[in-house]
From TrEMBL:
The gene is apeB. The keyword Protease applies. Keywords: Aminopeptidase, Hydrolase, Metal-binding, Metalloprotease, Protease, Zinc. This is M18 family aminopeptidase. Belongs to the peptidase M18 family. Pfam families: Peptidase_M18. Its cofactor is Zn(2+). Its EC number is 3.4.11.-.
């Protein structure tokens, strides 16, 4: 895939993936179109040599893999990991709020949201609805309103003269989106039923039982900057890595078993049935290598590249960085290092990545958080700790992480795709 086509496809993927459910559906569609076979966890699996497969859990996490040979204990895996979720505002179960002449939505903050960035944005709603059909079946369907139907207006500076000196947003009282005026009749379940009928004309809805819905910014993803060198979009953390990993897997030559794992709930700790701190990946790998001794052999001959966005040096806040570890946008992916194992990188996994990047003539940067600041973490240490696979944490330099709209480099994304595609074809890792 060339540079232009890559970024066009990336923008489409970002636009079609407003929630983890939709991101997983987008990846599922791409895999099916490239000949991958969908597996169901409740079925008995028949895995063939030279096969291409994928499986989802909770409709929000996905594992895809190739099996050029079935002796994984001898070859190991070339793994790429990312996460499908992003910080956002999620609707509460009893979300309808009517006050002071407006119909609003009660929301809960998911993850480390930069709350003030959600003010004065054109918002829509997407997610999963579980319902009962008139035939008596309980089914789930994804919905996406797409149109801007909600907004959280800011408070005028005349009523908050200290606004430019810094202010906090109360998530219980001050972040509730407005849908319409009270002069209009409004019932949330009726709205959701109407949307289901609009998207699924054949669906006979008896009643809505529950939902998992999020707000999102309707402004499209775009290439911006004087020379279009930046990607500006919601949910770059971490759909950017999901897309790069997916394209790398599709590019693999199937000489070595390769695997992509994209899990939900990273932004809140990954502890769930479909999160990195849950059993999903281990369940899949043990079905492919059920012999305990061979499983350990396979893991020790494998390597995981955990891809999650990295903090680029912000020119307006340079003091927030260690000056010797201050990544720049469009200067290459970032190897993340932390002595306290907030990242899983070690000297060996970093060396393998540096060597592969050099083969692609692709620059490599390094990030270490300032010693007087707390360090974030990723799925890398969690996955490595769960299955024992050697791991490196990398990421694409990003501005505004956890904002409703983030900024990364278009050349970085394409370069990482080329490096990870080569990684899936790598024969030897570390010689013992």
């Amino acid at each position: 895939m060339d540079f232009s086509n890559f970024n066009d496809t990336l923008l489409s993927f970002l636009q079609s993936s407003p929630t983890p459910f939709h991101a997983t559906a987008s990846m599922r569609s791409a895999l099916l179109s490239h000949g991958f076979v969908e597996l169901l966890e409740e079925d008995t699996w028949v895995i063939e040599e030279g096969g291409k497969y994928f499986v989802t859990r909770n409709e929000s996490s996905l594992i895809a893999f190739t099996t050029p040979q079935l002796t994984m204990s001898q070859s190991g895996w070339r793994m790429i990991g990312a996460h499908t979720d992003s910080p956002c505002l999620k609707l509460k179960p009893n979300a309808q709020v009517d006050r002071f002449g407006y119909h609003q939505l009660g929301v809960e903050v998911y993850g480390g949201v930069l709350l003030h960035t959600w003010l004065d944005r054109d918002l829509s709603i997407a997610g999963r609805i579980t319902l009962k059909t008139k035939a008596g079946d309980i089914v789930s369907r994804l919905v996406d309103f797409k149109e801007p139907i909600a907004v959280v207006p800011n408070l005028a500076i005349h009523l908050n003269r200290q606004a430019n000196e810094g202010f906090s947003v109360n998530p219980q009282e001050e972040i509730l989106p407005i849908l319409c005026g009270a002069e209009n009749e409004f019932d949330l379940h009726e709205l959701l039923t109407s949307q289901l009928k609009k998207q699924y004309s054949e669906l006979q809805v008896d009643s809505i039982l529950d939902f998992e819905l999020s707000l999102y910014d309707t402004q499209p993803a775009a290439l911006v900057g004087l020379h279009k060198e930046y990607i500006c979009s919601a949910r770059l953390d971490n759909l950017l890595s999901c897309f790069v990993g997916l394209q790398a897997l599709l590019e693999s030559d199937q000489q070595r078993p390769s695997l992509l794992v994209c899990t939900d709930h990273e932004e809140i700790g990954s502890l769930s049935a479909c999160g990195a701190n849950g059993p999903f990946l281990d369940d899949v790998l043990r079905r492919l290598t059920p012999n305990p001794e061979q499983y350990v052999q396979a893991m020790q001959r494998s390597m995981l590249v955990s891809a999650d966005n990295a903090h680029a040096l912000h020119p307006n806040y340079a003091h927030k960085h260690d000056k010797n570890h201050a990544p720049a946008i469009n200067k290459g992916a970032v190897i993340k290092v932390n002595a306290n194992q907030r990242y899983a990188t070690n000297s060996e996994t970093a060396s393998v990545y540096r060597d592969i990047a050099a083969e692609e003539n692709y620059e490599v940067q390094c990030f270490v958080v300032r010693s007087d600041m707390a360090c974030g973490s990723t799925i890398g240490p969690i996955t490595s700790g769960e299955i024992g696979v050697p791991t490196i944490d990398i990421g694409l330099p990003t501005f505004g992480m956890h904002s409703i709209r983030e900024l990364a480099g278009s050349r970085d994304a394409y370069g990482l795709y080329k490096v990870l595609a080569r990684f899936t074809k790598r024969d030897k890792l570390i010689t013992r």
